Amino acid sequence: MKKLTVACLSLLLLSAGWIPASYASPTSKKVTVTCDSAVPDNITGQAVVTVCDASSTGPCLGQTVDCPVPTCDSQTTSMTTACDPGFKVDAIEAQVVVDDATSTTHMVDGLKGKGFSASYSSGNDTVTITVK
Length: 132
Description:
- This protein is mainly β.
- The protein is built from 1 helix and 9 strands; from the N terminus they run H-E-E-E-E-E-E-E-E-E.
- A hairpin with a 1-residue loop joins strand 6 and strand 7 (102-112).
- Residues 4-23 have low confidence and may be disordered.
């Protein structure tokens, strides 16, 4: 009986290594920017994201990595880029640029490394950034 219990436990532990994690990675982030515009409006959006390591003593004072910049417009409504800095992300800074006739820049500072989502509107047009 003892051998059967050990064998079952071993199989359970081995199979657990093949189950994908359903939580956000502390070291890899996905940055998505989405544009939503009312016809015939044109809009462009861009997200400049910087991630910071866990040794930061304030907003992005430690090691930082600039993520690849996703952009969107009225034709390419959404784009996602991967950001893999190689360290545990402790803070995220973002600059979101919304351009539909006039260009507006929004800063988001000192966010925890877990990610966020924010939307910025101009008239009937919206740019959304999501970091997971």
